[in-house]
Amino acid sequence: MPGAERVTVEGQEAAVIADGVSRIFGPLRAVDRLSVVIPRGVIYALLGPSGSGKTTFLRMVVGALRPSEGRLWVFGIAMPSRRVAQRIGYMPQAPALYPDLTLRENLRFFGAVYRVSRRQLEQRIEELATDLDLLAWLDHPLYRFSGGMLQRASLAVALLHEPDLLVLDEPTVGLDPLLRRTLWERFRLLASRGTTLLISTHSMDEADRCDLLGFLRGGRLLASDTPAALRALTGQDSLEDAFLILAGHPVLPVEPPR
Ligand SMILES: Nc1ncnc2c1ncn2[C@@H]1O[C@H](COP(=O)(O)OP(=O)(O)OP(=O)(O)O)[C@@H](O)[C@H]1O
Ligand SMILES: [Mg+2]
After folding, report:
1. How far is the CA of 10 from the centre of ligand 2 (A)?
2. Calculated CA dihedral for residues 46, 50, 55, 57, nearest 10 degrees
3. Whose CA is nearest to atom 1 of ligand 1?
4. How far is the C-alpha of 31 from the C-alpha of 217, rounded, in Å?
5. 56-87: b or e for each residue (b if 16 or more CB lie within 10 Å)?
6. pLDDT tens digits along 147-163
7. Proximal ligand: closest to the CA of 168
8. In degrees to the nearest 10, what's the CA dihedral of 233, 236, 237, 242?
């Protein structure tokens, strides 16, 4: 793809462009010659079995890991780049926060890293803590948090500086249905305002809410299309069955109850 960084989608510069990107760990190609264009303002989900390379790809997109091969651009800037890091919010699969600091202290720390102005920061902290149902926990140290609360704290950090690209690695694992719904409403709102969301998920229910899905297996992107197109491609009505087919498993007929 010569000049790939200038790929535009409907007149807009793409949010993420990968051109033959691989990441090699010793004998393993964790991500194998992956090419994809992710337009702005969409919710794009990576699906695939455990170990298929989702996290590894996301880490390259945010600039935490360098590709072994190929080229990667975010908003037209070659990654890794410090300049573009400021425009990305990243929620890693394992929360990377300070357990001895309170939630407020964690958010202030990351707010300073992302250069959010002091006044704006205090307002954002209140807003996010309210939305994520963490208001009562703002002044408690994170070591006292439950798994789902830590997950939400991590999400608050990713959302703090209102990034143009949100990269969320399994963002709603361990959240109850009500919170999950609230978050999806927020994701949709963000996308409608032009934020691009790149997420990974194992939940087919969630995948179905996305605009585009990429299916990874053994580091290779086997398909990248809308949920409806992936159903049509595999001839399956349910996304779960489409997933199983793409993952290389036969879909067994379900016995009707007797
Ligand atoms: N730093 C590393 N060094 C060596 N191997 C690694 C490293 N990071 C990931 N891998 C390997 O790369 C492969 C892809 O891992 P990755 O975490 O990207 O998978 P995943 O699709 O995110 O899986 P899951 O759904 O379980 O989160 C796995 O085989 C993993 O063991
Ligand atoms: Mg992962």
Report:
1. 31
2. -60
3. 25
4. 9
5. bbbbbbbbebebeebbbbbbebebbbeebbeb
6. 889 989 999 999 999 89
7. 2
8. -80
Pocket of ligand 1 (CB under 6 A): 25, 28, 30, 48, 50-56, 93
Q: Are strands 43-47 and 77-78 parallel, antiparallel or unpaired?
A: unpaired
pLDDT, tens digit, 9 for 90 and up, residues 120-141: 999 999 999 998 889 999 999 9
Best of 29, 55, 66, 68 for a ligand 1 pocket test (most atoms within 8 Å of beta carbon) = 55
The rounded distance, in Å, linking the Cα atoms of 244 and 241 is 5
Spatial separation of the C-alpha atoms in residues 98 and 173, rounded to whole Å: 20
Q: Is the pTM of this model over 0.70?
A: yes
Count of C-beta atoms within a 10 Å radius of residue 176: 10
The per-residue DSSP string of 26-69 comes to: TTEEEEEEEEEEE-TT-EEEEE-STTSSHHHHHHHHTTSS--SE
Distance from C-alpha of 219 to C-alpha of 29, rounded to nearest angstrom = 7
Q: What is the pLDDT of residues 12-67, one digit of tens each?
A: 679 999 999 999 999 999 999 999 999 999 999 999 999 999 999 999 999 999 99
Phi-psi region of 115 (alpha: psi -120 to 50; beta: other; left: phi over 0): left
DSSP 8-state secondary structure symbol assigned to residue 88: E
Do the Cβ atoms of 69 and 20 come closer than 8 Å? yes
